[in-house]
């Protein structure tokens, strides 16, 4: 009978911490770009609505 690793640690074997850091930074950059574009479009639509009222 062979002893196998617990399934909870099998997912984290041989993961390079540098790769995890790079992926985290890329995800943060993408999220920041999303928030920037969202804020820009919301301001644009608010300005269009304000312009129609005048």
Order of helical and strand elements: HH
How would a textbook summarize the main sheet? none
Strand percentage = under 5%
Radius of gyration: 23 Å
Name the structural class. mainly alpha
Describe this structure in words.
The chain has a domain at 18-45. Helices cover 76% and strands 0% of the residues. The protein has helices at 7-10, 17-53. It is rod-shaped, with a radius of gyration of 23 Å. The mean pLDDT is 86.
How are the SSEs placed, and which strands pair?
Elements (H helix, E strand, L loop, with lengths): L6 H4 L6 H37 L1
List keywords for this structure.
transmembrane helix; 2 helices; 54 residues; transmembrane; DUF7859; rod-shaped; membrane
Short synopsis of the structure:
With 54 residues, this protein is mainly α. It has helices spanning 7-10, 17-53.
